[in-house]
């Protein structure tokens, strides 16, 4: 695979922010629980898929309907007749990202399946979906849990990277100000990674506890 570089930093790290903020002390349990809490606080995430005609990446805002696999996997409700289901049928790879006003963020890489089983739909159905799909007046497409247009997108997570902070806004501003003066990277976040191996490990633990 080709790579890109515009300079040579010698034996110095080219991305000191990463080294300053990466959190390698948190246990897998701590990482997943903090991630789940952050996702719940955001509620809405951006789902990225690939357009089938142009090949371009496109994103849209999606409300999290639930979590599975010990809170490591995500579910969303969808209109099965939308473009995103066409895109996901052609290419199941997707990214789900979250961000809040304080700069905390999370990025999920995973594969998405489209579920139309009515028991699954009813598990995640919300009456507010009717406001988005409407009642077409034909006795079938009425926006209810039995409306065949309503499906569930199951995102089976492959890996996650996220950044959270326990610093106040004043503390973070002070860190950035110090870094601006001294050139020392600002320590403002707990940058955490959950690898594919860790995701599989957590899913196995969750299935035993279920």
Furnish the topology, listing elements before pairings.
Blueprint (H helix, E strand, L loop, with lengths): L15 H6 L6 H15 L1 E7 L6 E7 L2 E3 L4 E7 L3 H8 L2 E7 L5 E11 L2 H7 L4 H5 L16 E15 L4 H14 L7 E5 L1 H14 L1
Could you characterize the architecture of this molecule?
This protein has 210 residues and is of the alpha+beta class. 33% of the residues lie in helices and 30% in strands. It is built from seven helices and eight strands, in the order H-H-E-E-E-E-H-E-E-H-H-E-H-E-H. It has helices at residues 16-21, 28-42, 83-90, 118-124, 129-133, 169-182, 196-209; strands spanning 44-50, 57-63, 66-68, 73-79, 93-99, 105-115, 150-164, 190-194. Strands 1, 2, 3, 4, 5, 6, 7 and 8 form an eight-stranded antiparallel sheet that branches. The longest helix has 15 residues, at 28-42.
Number of helices: 7
Count of strand segments: 8
Cα separation of the termini: 41 Å
Percent of sequence in beta strands: 25-35%
**What gross morphology would you assign?**
elongated
pLDDT averaged over residues: 90
Integer-rounded radius of gyration: 20 Å
Largest sheet: 8 strands, antiparallel
| Assembly category | single chain
- Low-confidence stretches at least 5 residues in length (pLDDT < 50)? none
- What's the order of the H and E elements? HHEEEEHEEHHEHEH
Structural class, by secondary structure, is alpha+beta
The proportion of residues forming helix, as a percent range, comes to: 25-40%
Characteristic key phrases:
210 residues; alpha+beta; eight-stranded antiparallel beta sheet; 7 helices; 8 strands; 33% helix; elongated
């Amino acid at each position: 695979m080709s790579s890109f570089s515009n300079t040579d930093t010698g034996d110095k790290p080219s991305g000191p922010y990463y080294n300053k903020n990466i959190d390698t002390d948190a246990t897998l349990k701590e990482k997943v629980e903090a991630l789940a809490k952050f996702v719940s606080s955001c509620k809405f995430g951006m789902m990225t898929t690939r357009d089938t005609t142009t090949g371009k990446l496109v994103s849209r805002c999606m409300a999290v309907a639930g979590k599975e696999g010990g809170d490591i996997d995500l579910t969303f409700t969808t209109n099965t007749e939308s473009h995103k289901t066409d895109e996901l049928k052609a290419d199941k790879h997707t990214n789900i990202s979250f961000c809040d006003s304080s700069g905390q963020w999370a990025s999920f890489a995973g594969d998405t399946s489209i579920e139309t089983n009515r028991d699954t739909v009813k598990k995640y159905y919300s009456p507010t979906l009717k406001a988005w799909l409407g009642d077409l007046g034909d006795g079938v497409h009425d926006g209810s849990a039995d409306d065949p247009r309503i499906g569930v997108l199951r995102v089976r997570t492959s890996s996650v990277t996220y950044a959270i902070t326990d610093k106040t806004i004043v503390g973070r501003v002070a860190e950035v100000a110090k870094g601006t003066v001294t050139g020392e990277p600002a320590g403002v976040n707990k940058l955490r990674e959950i690898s594919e191996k860790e995701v599989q490990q957590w899913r196995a633990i969750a299935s035993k506890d279920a």
